[in-house]
Amino acid sequence: MNHFPERLKAARKMKGYSLQDLVNAMKEPVSKQALSKYEAGNMKPDSKVLRNLCNALGQPVDYFLRTSSIELGGIEFRKQSSLPEKEQTKIKYLTIEFLERYLELEEIMGIDNCLSNPIGNLKIKNEQDVERAAEKLREAWNWGYEPISNIVELLEEKGVKVFQLDAHDAFLGLSCKVNDQVSVIVMNNNEKISIVRKRFTILHELAHLLLDLSDATPLQKEHYCNVFAGAMLMPESIFKKAFGGFRKRIVWPEFILIKEEYGISIAAILYRAKILKLISMNYFKEMMMDYNRIGYQNGEPGQFLGSEQSKRFLQLVLRAYSEDLISSSKAAVLNGQKMFEFRDMLYLMDKK
């Protein structure tokens, strides 16, 4: 079977290119009609055109020759109507390409690392159920009650594939399943998005993967996932201890201290205090008005010094290479690099 047409289309979508954009990107352009015929499978490019396409699309020849069995299920761009459809398509195809490499690498190494869900049997009907689910998950995963410095790394260890990409700032994140088996979270690494917002988004998407929300309305699902994210960042007992019980008044520097220790935004702290009934609804509204008046919605004070990165994928690539399971050229392809980039990376790592 000829897989080239669908691979060409996928590579073009990953770049966010129209057919005309691809024509413009090629050093020796072919006609838009020819590209359309390539994608329809009505015509095949010669070796010269194929090299030209590889250069324009930033893909090795190997990419166009391999097949894909990746099907993303349950993928939704929630609350992101401002994200252009072209960007949504680009993110989808980039995610598929990343997962192709990741799952191929695990197959080469004989690794079966899928997420086990210790809270899947809990029916979620209210906020208290969500709190209990978060508590049970922290306990099952031995996360304890200390601040979590790197959520991404911990999730990767549990079998969640976390794909980080720089995308349009209207995109925060999404979750989906690959072939109804592999759990995936996609997060935006855009520097305009604060690390505390990224952390909250990751856990919000984790909730979509783990919680049984079958009885909830779409609005309730989003609300429960927000409650879950807050509860994972700061379990109820820890939050009450840090917040000091019911409060009639609290000053902004107190929020900043909590934010810097636990990696949770000031807005999320306020929201959690309201959920746990540690402030009145009227005071919550008053504080949110003040929050917006000060301009915190455009950038909060306080900085969380944790990191949201995982080295697992790179470690697997290097292990497979060092154990002669793959060649250096294959390692470069799996790591999404050109051959010289992979060798330069090895050289620089050896020098450290």
Overall description:
With 352 residues, the protein is mainly alpha-helical. It has three domains: 1-67, 434 Repressor (Amino-terminal Domain) (Orthogonal Bundle); 127-298; 312-351. The protein contains 17 helices and four strands. It has helices spanning 4-15, 19-25, 32-40, 47-57, 61-65, 85-108, 127-140, 151-157, 195-210, 218-233, 236-243, 252-262, 266-275, 281-294, 312-322, 328-334, 339-351, and strands at 72-73, 161-165, 173-178, 182-188. A four-stranded mixed sheet has the order 1-3-4-2. A hairpin with a 3-residue loop joins β3 and β4 (182-188). α7 (127-140) packs across α10. The longest helix is centred in the N-terminal third of the chain and has 24 residues, at 85-108. It is elongated and about 75 Å long. The model has no long low-confidence stretch (mean pLDDT 92).
